Give the backbone structure.
Amino acid sequence: MGSEHRFPVRVYFEDTDLSGVVYHANYLRFMERARSDMLRAAGIDQRGAFESGEGVYAITNLAIRYRAPAKLDDDLLIVSRVMDTKAVSCVIQQRVMRGGLLVAEADVTAAFLSPEGKPRRQPQPWLEAFRRLQGEEETV
Amino acid sequence: MGSEHRFPVRVYFEDTDLSGVVYHANYLRFMERARSDMLRAAGIDQRGAFESGEGVYAITNLAIRYRAPAKLDDDLLIVSRVMDTKAVSCVIQQRVMRGGLLVAEADVTAAFLSPEGKPRRQPQPWLEAFRRLQGEEETV
Amino acid sequence: MGSEHRFPVRVYFEDTDLSGVVYHANYLRFMERARSDMLRAAGIDQRGAFESGEGVYAITNLAIRYRAPAKLDDDLLIVSRVMDTKAVSCVIQQRVMRGGLLVAEADVTAAFLSPEGKPRRQPQPWLEAFRRLQGEEETV
Amino acid sequence: MGSEHRFPVRVYFEDTDLSGVVYHANYLRFMERARSDMLRAAGIDQRGAFESGEGVYAITNLAIRYRAPAKLDDDLLIVSRVMDTKAVSCVIQQRVMRGGLLVAEADVTAAFLSPEGKPRRQPQPWLEAFRRLQGEEETV
């Protein structure tokens, strides 16, 4: 079953472009903030892992569908759900909502990399954290 | 067959993040620059169409695969190819190259929207420009 | 005397560059979020004014001193204070703090512009809101 | 006398905000591109110095005056001039031009920092490069 992580984002001038709505690339920034917040809440210290030379996540695949525009001052909610957890990567589904309206939805694959940029098994406590988020803990 | 549009991008500090490579959302900025340059070269005046109230393009779908990192000072080449042209939208395939190395590749769907945000038939000369880029002119 | 407006900002990957700290231009984004929040809290509806054709603020002068770096995951506080209120512009002093440490400080002048880009007297209720923020209400 | 470095920048959708003009923080990105290009042309390898652990530049002070708006598709020219060169820092004056029109002008102070973030004497060949840019070589 898993659980959903919810992260609020306000739209500021920096996020819009001259067409009056949020610039398409900026949703990726919103979604990364939400993923980082989800990881932090799950006890995953990305900065510590980076500074100690353990590694860092990199996005390997991302597919996004834009459904409705968002505008200045909008209160958005980024809803994230872990869909799959493998040794070196995980898949996260993310929806950008404004009230009950779906603004955008994406499937994001992130892989853990060594400082040299090679795929590396995620730290064991992190794997367990992702599996808890995914809702698999009872099946193991 | 169609033709490829080639657009150079240099990587600056603004494009990188603390992991030392280009932040994943910034490739979308690079690819948008390349599409805008391709349109300008094809005689499509996006600013004029926006200011006259004719309309503006919005991205509706984007799927990107990240294959290799890019770093500060890298000379990248964005290679764009129109794959499909419909009345209100078109599909563009874009590859980010560093020399012979594929850094990222994406499929991007853009739709033309009225100032109210409704899908609108692309201006006829623009449709013809996209079809020329796509290489269909000889088949009509 | 006036009052200080306090606005929290978390540092995400998007904000950093390869040197490992927040990219210098991104503090301007943080400070603009704080100013927009301060205006919203004071009852100033920037989006409404823009959409109704009344006008929009533009920065005319900005001076920033960078005092200490900020890093991924840092919890920053943007402290803003209105220093001067004129008919068409106001001056806001902003400090970026991490706990008791001063990260950056800036003086920002914003002018109200008509849709044609000409300086325009700020709406009267907004002027009064700025003067309340500045702490001049008792002196008038 | 010194020499001016000239760097062209095109305005894209990513650079604008809903008010229809370039977002104020984005001029700092344009100016950083120009400085990096000036350094590269002068033989200064910022990426090499960073990767070898020698150090990296950080902005310590920046004052910018915005004089005229810039819009989508504008061809801007960033004109940079080294004004002062000290052991650990230098001052660069930068103007953003559109044809003969001054769009923005800034004074920027950059300091060289060790990987630990401490001010460090700039590498001797870089100091000499800055002095050549500044036009002091004939006076020494």
Observations:
- Chain D has a mean pLDDT of 95.
- The CA atoms of residues 80 and 94 of chain D lie 4 Å apart.
- Helices of chain D lie at 26-41, 46-51, 124-134.
- The beta strands of chain D are 5-10, 56-66, 75-85, 89-98, 101-113.
